[in-house]
Amino acid sequence: MNESAVPATVKAFEERLLEVSASLPKRLRQCADYVAANQDRIAVSTVAEMAEGAGVQPSAFMRFCQIMGFSGFSEMQRLFRDSYVGGWPDYATRLDHLREKGKESGGGLLAEFVEAGRASLESLLKTVDPHELDEAVSILAKADIIHIIGLRRSFPVASYLAYAFEKMKVPAMLHSAVGKLDNQSAIRPGDAVLAITFSPYTAETVDLVTAARSRDIPVVALTDTAVSSLRKSGAKLISVTEVDFGAFRSLSATLCVAITLAVAVGTQRD
In this protein, which residues make up the domain named HTH rpiR-type (predicted)? Predict the structure, then answer.
């Protein structure tokens, strides 16, 4: 593993993260997963805060930075600070101010989640590639049946998509894994899969996507990190980053992308 190549851009950083993540030991993989899902925090957090978020010791997080090609956390942080100069709002600072006003009250919590949701929505314009989005819409619009899967935290998004497609008379099937039935046999040539999963990725969702891709069934995936396990399957990824508060993440940005997909697919099919 070459630890001397320092990523010069955020894109190069993401490519290296994807390259090394699969071979990392458990603790360092935790660092990779946390960084991939929380790139917006690198510029404003300390190494101790990043290590705490990843559930590792600061020394392990420093080792991860070195594997990524940096001399330490400060050099990695500089890359992200430089890339956002002049246009990146300091959301972490704003959330800290809100916490100081009383995070236990209903009004305080509402303010926290509104701010986190707003930050997530604004980041969509930076993380979602319009060309990739158009390709995803094209894949789904051409499908005979759209097979939707999203479990646990992703289930509200999956069920909303199923509801929206039904109302627009777009043939779709919601896979819920009730009774451990994955209904993979219902996916036929000419269909497409729409998967929603976030780190840590749901095994049932990953298994269905892998099985579909092994049969050359096209897959569109809403996911959150550059190192998503779905990338290697050849799925068309739409990356969505949700800013969290107190380890709770809303689905503001994900639902925004979901309604965009649903309406765009319905329009194209008409």
Answer: 11-87
